[in-house]
Amino acid sequence: MCKNLVRRNCKRKGYIKTPYCKIKKIWNPTCSNCEEYKVYKSIKPYSKKRAKLERERYSILTNDLNKCYICGAKENIHIHEIYFGKNRQNSMKYGCCVPLCFYHHNGSKHAVHYDKYLDDLLKEECQRKFEKEHSREEFISIFGRSYLWKYGELK
């Protein structure tokens, strides 16, 4: 899709006008040879393995995935993977997930995605619970590092 391609809506008549190129000054252009042309990749669909992991998520911190772990609300619940990024699938596999309401997930400045302190508390609590059944070395080999060192413990 060309960066200089413009599509205009005609609200009165209820239709979309044909595309217009701002550089070539023509209607309905073929902009594949434009210097500002960029081919967009389609969004990759979920694999069956990832979809199964998401359906079978559980939490080692709580048994009730239908109420917020922080405030106890039962509406608009999102399942939050505590260790995200490259460790997201490991979080789902080992139960490092927690149910959060929209407010505590990403709906305010106090949400886990915007509040580093709350994020670190969840990571620390989850690691402590994980280490009741496994060793710290196993946790570090799975998730890459220990999250307890910030709170006075050794790595």
Q: How many angstroms separate the termini? A: 49 Å
Largest sheet: 3 strands, antiparallel
Count of beta strands? 7
**What fraction of the residues are assigned to beta strands by DSSP?**
5-15%
Strand order of the largest sheet: 1-4-5
- Overall SS class: alpha+beta
- Element pattern in H and E: EEEEEHEHEHHH
Low-confidence stretches: none
Count of discrete alpha- or pi-helical segments spanning 4 or more residues = 5
Helix content: 25-40%
Rg over CA atoms, rounded to whole Å, is: 23 Å
What shape does the CA trace take?
elongated
- Average pLDDT taken over every residue: 82
* Subunit organisation of the chains: single chain
Count of folded domains: 2
Task: Label this structure with key terms.
5 helices; 155 residues; three-stranded antiparallel sheet; two-stranded antiparallel sheet; elongated; 2 domains; alpha+beta
Structural account:
- With 155 residues, the chain is α+β, with helices and mostly antiparallel strands.
- It folds into 2 domains: 1-40, no CATH class; 48-151, no CATH class.
- The protein is 27% helix and 13% strand.
- It is built from 5 helices and 7 strands.
- Strand 2 and strand 3 form a beta hairpin.
